[in-house]
Amino acid sequence: MRLAVIPARGGSKRIPRKNIKSFCGKPMIAWSIEAAQQSGCFDQIIVSTDDVEITEVARQHGAAVPFMRPAELSDDHTGTIPVIRHAVEWFNAQGRAVEHVCCLYATAPFVRVEDIQRGLKILDETGSDYAFSVTSYPFPIQRAIRITEQDRVEMFNPEHFNTRSQDLEEAYHDAGQFYWGRASAWLQGKMIFSPDSAPVLLPRHRVQDIDTPEDWLRAEWMFKAMQAQNG
Question: A GO molecular function for this record (predicted)?
């Protein structure tokens, strides 16, 4: 079976209750649930949570919550891989063998149906362990600077001070929307950022981390602008 797992614990601190906070007219998590439903990629769409209120909202919008996530997988330090592995193990124990799993973040309102579909296609065609959303940095990372303890600046790579931007290698980062993976890779705890993973490239204007109130405000502006453009 193909499984979508939306991790959504209840303990967000910088933006309290952010997984179900209203974003442009819907609970944030609803955007991810609806994208998964409309993609037609999944036999089951579930939310992995430790929170009763998130459970209720998820079910109202059509996702299943077949178990409550254990406390040891619900703290600030738990990574994505153990959460997805737990979900796969749960389904396997029920006699429902999982083949492909897509971890879809609850705070990904910019995720598009066609990107989820493209991720599955890339996973299959490349034979990779994972295929996940990435986007390019807007500025050459080789020319990044740090602020020192003396309140001065220095380059991370001073050898590139005189290198033209167009001569520097383009760099990419995790877009934080979804991670398709083979169930075997999740179960083995294989690293996602590795040569065994394939990129699903997204344009920068559809990527926004939402970790702080400032991020949230920027994301709503971007989302509304895109809605207006699309009529």
Answer: nucleotidyltransferase activity
